[in-house]
Amino acid sequence: MENRVISFREALAAVRAHAPMLPVETVAAAQALGRVLAEDVVAPEDLPGFDNAAMDGFALGPAHLAFPPDTPIPVSRRQFAGDGHGVMDGGACQIMTGARLPLGAVAVVPIERVQLDGAWDAPGGLRIRLAETVAPDANIRRAGQDVQAGQAVLVAGTRLAPKHLLLLAALGIGVVVVRAVPKAAVLCTGSELLAEHEAPRDGHIRNANGPYLCAALAAMGAEVVLYRAVPDALEAYTDAVRAAEAAGAHVIVSTGAVSMGVHDFVPAALQSMRAETVFHKLAMRPGKPTLFALLPSGALLFGLPGNPMSSACGLRFFVQTALRAMQGRPPERPRHAVLMQALDKKPDWTLLQRAALADDDGVLRVQLLPDQESFRIQPFVQADVWALLPPDAAHLPTGSVLAVYPIDGAD
Ligand SMILES: Nc1nc2c(c(=O)[nH]1)N[C@H]1C(S)=C(S)[C@@H](COP(=O)(O)OP(=O)(O)OC[C@H]3O[C@@H](n4cnc5c(N)ncnc54)[C@H](O)[C@@H]3O)O[C@H]1N2
Ligand code: MOO
User: Fold this and answer.
1) Phi, psi of 230 (to 5 degrees)
2) CA–CA separation, 239 vs 235, rounded Å?
3) ipTM summary value
4) Which of 264, 284, 302, 309 to mutate to test the pocket of ligand 2 (most atoms within 8 A of CB)?
């Protein structure tokens, strides 16, 4: 490990470089929500699969389009969605939205644009008159107009959202090749910690980080295989790390005990386990004492500082970066927003501040919230985004453009 205090960007790059790619597996597309594609998806067929009507109305042949206005055209057949292809036989064909276009049809006119004479089941049958010209191809959805067979429709690294399942189902793709679900463990250190249901005792606090980290990891697509509160003792911590490895965790997230306190034993515990510490201490806030280590088992260990915002920020940026990289996802691209207040900041430090976003007549504006200390939970709850104040600036004037990141990073 370098002894130098490294930058936020260098730390992100180090996490990305050390994150191992997870193996691939094949799963049912219907069960694949939130999973990450390991391969491009190529359309096996056209969408639509056949020429069909876009409106309920009448399919017309080329001769009908040339008729003078008001010429009666007999309706000789009907075509419903689900029918096989039929053939035009000289008359018009009453057709329903989505029904396969009969061979020889060149346009569809909506029912409300024609005058109806007679009735389908009456003697003499149904005739239509066109009040206006109908253009060739009108209201026809052509095969392959949406997707063409052989086209790459989804790229490897895509995290499957409901919209992707729509496309897969339409194309009849029942299975997809995805990355394994990353397994995570959450270890919260601190002899002061109580479970959330316990009554407060003198000097104790409730373990707030644990439930948050478990929920945020699940939202990021990880499976939490172990969650444990760990008293302030080195052996209890090493036991918990071993239990996390035994549970198959690819990523172990611990909170607390990484700073300068008498009980800040995480660095020593990792040394005793022969872990390789990649970094410990960053020029960033919150999260200055953040630690990242590689365990001999191959698991990644994130030692996040105990303050709730320091843990939340470390999970949001470092653990999320690792989970993305392990699943072959590209690095996250932030949005950008215009800063609404001027500020001075410590040069060389990256600050990640809780902020509100506002859409001001199409311009995205970011307002940093007051009270940014890392013990405060309330501004986090009120925030829409983390706003990144870059290290190269000591003064940020109003109107500066900042990168902003959704607060939970669960996309
Ligand atoms: N002398 C120094 N003191 C501190 C420094 C420093 O550089 N020199 N750094 C400060 C910074 S910055 C941070 S961040 C914290 C990090 O401390 P630790 O990671 O060692 O964490 P703890 O001391 O265990 O806890 C810090 C704080 O967070 C509360 N906490 C811990 N776990 C939880 C939990 N699961 N849920 C809710 N709250 C939790 C804990 O009670 C403490 O108040 O160190 C500073 N000190
Ligand atoms: O880095 Mo600590 O997280 O500033 O409070």
Assistant:
1) -120, 125
2) 6
3) 0.97
4) 309
